[in-house]
């Protein structure tokens, strides 16, 4: 049967367009129930009699129909393997898809799990359940009516199937259909129409066999919530916000909470380079890190400056009070913030948050705060991320969860509540367990790490996989070349290999061969979409989260030795001085002759008795690489540094056994040079072929002010740093050498790294050519081509390169600038999160390594802060903070110091002075390292000063005297595991 659907749509110009479409209704759509005697079901029943729930509200067999808000708000409940025999109407599914893509994905995963008995009923195309829109009826009211019509039809339809004599003889109770809705209006209309109805909360709490399921309910307000007085100013409505933005009375941006100060944050606004400062609880006005907010700029006389002090909320059990009755503790802290913000600091634009444009809430990891009240179900959740406020939840299993890492999500944040309201989602595992802590790192850094779905895996090649004659015909056969790979120890995702051979004309042929991952991942399928969403492989200590399934990353795409593999080759003809004569790109078949570690390759190069083809190839490559590197340096490329450490991990417990600084050899540099050259060559080619949509990578030049700390620190040591160009900076860094401190140049370069901007992916058509420049590499153009197993950007580049040489066809999205810009935005985010997750993993393992230990180690002052020294420990390649300022009780955070110990900070030359001892950047110190586990969620490595000795502040070792106050720098002898007297 045919009917017509009419609806209106607003065009970009603001015109209202009336659209009429044909809509077909059918009478052969099955209800999916095994008790139905009317519908043709193909013997496949989603709704069965095997999963009757025992509800105290509905004491008979029943199916559930969910309205849209129940799916959107209670998805955590629905994901529990409790609710069965659930009917999802297409009206609801379409609304969910429109309102939340993430929840739409989650409900679809439940629907496709056949064990859950969720059935999608196509009510919009069933002749008895379709609801045409009535005059003056809103879309929301029409959808609510369609849900009620479908629910009533289902109930009557099933009742008519259960009146037969055979059914009555079976002795079974009649199965009914219940609507779950949290909409009061919809519920009232359903009751008036004799539909069985309940709220999600009522129904879940009626399941006596599953009392803990109620913990997962989303709460708009808590049960028995007292109506407290307002804590915060009201938010403007969306209409008021839009009007304020239009009149430029308000500004919009992304809110970033401070990690160090819970009463402070910043809003990134386009017009203001450093953003807008937000200070104070009322000004923060219930914004959570990541939210898109509307702000009102304060008069310039009320501008402030970021505080230099660390503030952590302590009184987490304070009753909700109006602003005029705030606790004295909070008033004092806010005064400290504002006082510290204006002393010796330049005021910055300051504002207050007046509305929320879009929430960016997610699931948060953390722990329950031990409650001071016995037998209470209301608790405070403390997130692992210091930027997230504490969250109030209701749970009946607090005793079980006390020593667990748990996940909580925010439901809402009323004006009258000091903290947002949320609900328990699930437990991750015991606090301190390695698997649990790794899971926290992945979740907190938004790293997709669930198993690859069956749909994704279905697009992998079927095993056993072999290269066919057709494949050989389409590719250049390079199996006879002496190609080899050089990688870190234990590497299984080998995505690059090299070769070099002499040509008859005396020149050299050099090839970089990259795994042809794009051959196996075709555009637009589920495997491609998953790889694009993940963006990058994430490396934790002893653990790897692959971007693509292991069959590709460690098998079919990995260029292991002695096995034929598909590659994308970049081949140059060079003269003996590494000048490029010719270059070509082609897809190939290679057979790596050997997979080596950096150390093995170095040994082969250095062993003059070795004269085989691989050894000769490596020596040629190594010699050319040194020429290429010198050329880059002469052009202004920077050699930067960062403290990197490697852990030896126990294969069974996965706990760190030993820690060491990563060693770099000539072979590391050799591989790096040819990867850089390949990336530059490919960037030049695809930018010439696709001027509007080439995927490139840029590194912006830092603002001059970024270099101020570096310039001051070097000047004190007698060196001048020139920062006008990359070349002048490079030459300045080369001159920073001290005969008595071999680590000095490395520290200078570490400081320089901290001054740099973040490198980012972009689309060529979005910027002018002069903006393509990569500052760190001194390259006018650059991209990523050489690691497609672990970076999706490289897959995009491979597709562009393949299309340009006719090795593969183009497709619409490949040449679409807007979609590629969105992909680049995601890749930049995923790359940043992967870096942070890797650092967090190193931090976790560092803490585990130092648990139960005390070690005295030699270090150097990297930065001098207003209340601390940032100290680098070369042996372990780690940094830590040595706090200097003391509070009114005479504590500096790790040791009680006498009131006579006073440190004075000099803003002019960035020094700290205590008596005759003066600390400058790069000064040597000896510190005692130990782990402070008093805060079970935020363990920290504590640095305490050993030398130079300051009486009343330094660690007492028994050998110090008053003469040690101005002690010389520490000797090379290191004291370990000494006990405090």
Automatic annotation (TrEMBL):
Ribosomal protein among keywords: no
Domain called PIN: residue spans: 62-188
Pfam families membership: OB_Dis3 (PF17849), PIN_4 (PF13638), RNB (PF00773), Rrp44_CSD1 (PF17216), Rrp44_S1 (PF17215)
GO molecular function: 3'-5'-RNA exonuclease activity; endonuclease activity; RNA binding
CDD domains per UniProt: PIN_Rrp44-like (cd09862)
Biological process terms in GO annotation: CUT catabolic process; nuclear mRNA surveillance of mRNA 3'-end processing; rRNA catabolic process; rRNA processing
Location of the RNB domain: 475-807
Region (Disordered): 957-981
Gene Ontology cellular component terms for the protein in this record: cytoplasmic exosome (RNase complex); nuclear exosome (RNase complex); nucleolus; nucleoplasm
Record InterPro entries: Dis3_CSD2, NA-bd_OB-fold, PIN-like_dom_sf, PIN_dom, RNase_II/R, RNase_II/R_CS, RNR_Ribonuclease, Rrp44_CSD1
Keyword ATP-binding among UniProt keywords: no
Subunit text: Component of the RNA exosome complex; within the complex interacts with EXOSC4, EXOSC7 and EXOSC9 of the exosome core complex (Exo-9). The catalytically inactive RNA exosome core complex (Exo-9) associates with the catalytic subunit EXOSC10/RRP6. Exo-9 may associate with DIS3 to form the nucleolar exosome complex, or DIS3L to form the cytoplasmic exosome complex. Exo-9 is formed by a hexameric base ring consisting of the heterodimers EXOSC4-EXOSC9, EXOSC5-EXOSC8 and EXOSC6-EXOSC7, and a cap ring consisting of EXOSC1, EXOSC2 and EXOSC3; DIS3 associates with the base ring of Exo-9.
Family: Belongs to the RNR ribonuclease family.
Protein name in the entry: Exosome complex exonuclease RRP44
Organism (species): Drosophila lebanonensis
Gene: LOC115625097
């Amino acid at each position: 049967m045919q009917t017509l659907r009419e609806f209106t749509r607003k065009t970009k110009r603001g015109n209202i367009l009336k659209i009429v479409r044909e809509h077909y209704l059918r009478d052969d759509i099955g209800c999916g129930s095994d008790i139905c005697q009317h519908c043709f079901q193909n013997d496949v029943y989603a709704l069965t009699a095997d999963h009757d729930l025992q509800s105290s509200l509905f004491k008979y067999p029943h199916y559930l129909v969910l309205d849209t808000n129940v799916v959107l708000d209670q998805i955590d409940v629905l994901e529990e393997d409790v609710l069965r025999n659930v009917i999802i109407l297409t009206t609801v599914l379409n609304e969910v898809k429109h309102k939340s893509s993430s929840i739409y994905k989650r409900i679809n995963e439940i629907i496709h799990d056949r064990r859950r008995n969720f059935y999608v009923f196509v009510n919009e195309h069933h002749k008895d359940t379709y609801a045409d829109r009535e005059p003056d009826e809103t879309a929301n009211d029409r959808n609510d009516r369609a849900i009620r019509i479908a629910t009533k039809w289902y109930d009557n339809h099933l009742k008519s199937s259960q009146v037969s004599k055979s059914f009555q003889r079976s002795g079974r109770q009649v199965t009914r259909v219940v609507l779950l809705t949290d909409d009061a209006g919809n519920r009232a209309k359903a009751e008036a129409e004799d539909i069985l109805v309940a709220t999600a909360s009522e129904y879940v709490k009626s399941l006596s066999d599953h009392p803990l399921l109620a913990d997962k309910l989303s709460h708009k307000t808590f049960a028995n919530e007292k109506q407290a007085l307002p804590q915060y100013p009201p938010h403007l409505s969306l209409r008021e916000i839009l009007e304020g933005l239009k009149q430029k009375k308000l500004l919009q941006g992304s809110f970033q909470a401070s990690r160090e100060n819970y009463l402070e944050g910043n809003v990134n606004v386009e017009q203001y380079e450093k953003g807008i400062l937000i200070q104070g609880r009322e000004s923060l006005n219930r914004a959570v890190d990541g939210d898109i907010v509307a702000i009102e700029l304060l008069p310039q006389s009320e501008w402030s400056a970021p505080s230099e002090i660390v503030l952590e909320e302590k009184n987490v059990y304070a009753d909700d009070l109006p602003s005029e009755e705030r606790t004295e503790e909070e008033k004092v802290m806010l005064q400290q913030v504002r006082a510290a913000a204006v002393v010796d600091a330049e005021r910055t634009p300051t504002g207050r948050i007046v509305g929320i444009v879009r929430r960016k809430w997610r699931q948060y990891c953390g722990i329950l705060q031990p409650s001071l009240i016995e037998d209470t179900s209301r608790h405070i959740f403390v997130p692992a991320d210091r930027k997230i406020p504490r969250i109030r939840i209701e749970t009946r299993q607090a005793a079980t969860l006390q020593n667990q890492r748990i996940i909580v999500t925010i439901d809402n944040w009323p004006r009258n509540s000091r903290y947002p309201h949320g609900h328990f989602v699930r437990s991750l595992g015991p606090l301190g367990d390695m698997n649990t802590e790794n899971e926290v790192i992945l979740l907190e850094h938004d790293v997709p790490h669930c198993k690859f779905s069956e749909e994704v895996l279905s697009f992998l090649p079927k095993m056993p996989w072999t290269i066919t004659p057709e494949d050989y015909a389409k590719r250049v056969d390079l199996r006879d070349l002496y190609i080899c790979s050089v990688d870190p120890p234990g590497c299984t995702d080998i995505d690059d290999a090299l070769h070099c051979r002499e040509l008859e004309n005396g020149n050299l042929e050099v090839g970089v061969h990259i795994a042809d991952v794009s051959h196996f991942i075709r555009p637009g399928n589920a495997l491609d979409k998953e790889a694009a969403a993940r963006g990058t492989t994430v490396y934790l200590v002893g653990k790897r989260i692959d971007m693509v399934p292991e069959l590709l990353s460690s098998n079919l795409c990995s260029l292991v030795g002695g096995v034929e593999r598909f590659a994308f080759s970049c081949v140059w003809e060079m003269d003996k001085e590494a000048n490029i004569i010719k270059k070509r790109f082609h897809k190939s078949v290679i057979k790596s002759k050997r997979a080596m570690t950096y150390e093995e390759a170095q040994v082969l190069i250095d062993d003059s008795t070795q004269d085989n083809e691989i050894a000769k190839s490596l020596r040629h490559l190594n010699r050319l690489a040194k020429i290429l590197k010198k050329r880059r340096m002469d052009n202004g490329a920077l050699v930067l540094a960062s403290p990197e450490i490697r852990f030896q991990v126990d294969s069974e417990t996965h706990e760190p056994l030993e820690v060491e600084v990563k060693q770099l050899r000539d072979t590391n540099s050799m591989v790096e040079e040819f990867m850089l050259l390949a990336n530059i060559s490919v960037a030049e080619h695809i930018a010439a072929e696709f001027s509007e949509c080439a995927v490139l990578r840029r590194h912006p030049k830092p603002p001059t002010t970024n270099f101020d700390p570096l310039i001051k620190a070097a000047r004190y040591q007698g060196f001048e740093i020139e920062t006008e160009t990359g070349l002048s900076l490079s030459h300045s860094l080369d001159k920073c050498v001290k005969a008595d401190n071999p680590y000095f140049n490395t520290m200078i370069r570490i400081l320089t790294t901290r001054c740099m901007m973040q490198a980012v992916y972009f689309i060529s058509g979005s910027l002018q050519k002069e903006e393509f420049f990569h500052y760190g590499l001194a390259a006018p153009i650059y991209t990523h081509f050489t690691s497609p197993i672990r970076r999706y950007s490289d897959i995009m580049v491979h597709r562009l390169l393949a299309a340009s040489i006719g090795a593969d066809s183009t497709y619409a999205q490949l040449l679409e600038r807007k979609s590629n810009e969105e992909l680049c935005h995601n890749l930049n985010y995923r790359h940043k999160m992967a870096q942070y997750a890797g650092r967090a993993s190193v931090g976790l393992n560092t803490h585990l390594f130092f648990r139960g230990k005390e070690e005295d180690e030699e270090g150097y002052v990297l930065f001098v802060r207003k209340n601390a020294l940032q100290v680098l420990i070369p042996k372990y390649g780690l940094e830590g903070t040595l706090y200097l300022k003391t509070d009114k009780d005479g504590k500096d955070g790790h040791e009680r110091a006498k009131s006579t110990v006073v440190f004075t900070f000099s803003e002019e030359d960035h020094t700290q002075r205590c008596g005759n001892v003066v600390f400058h950047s790069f000064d040597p110190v000896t510190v005692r390292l130990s782990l402070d586990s008093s805060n079970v969620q935020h363990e920290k490595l504590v640095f305490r000063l050993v030398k130079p000795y300051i009486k009343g502040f330094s660690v007492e070792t028994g050998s110090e005297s008053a003469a040690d106050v101005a002690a010389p720098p520490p000797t090379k002898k290191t004291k370990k595991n000494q006990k405090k007297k």
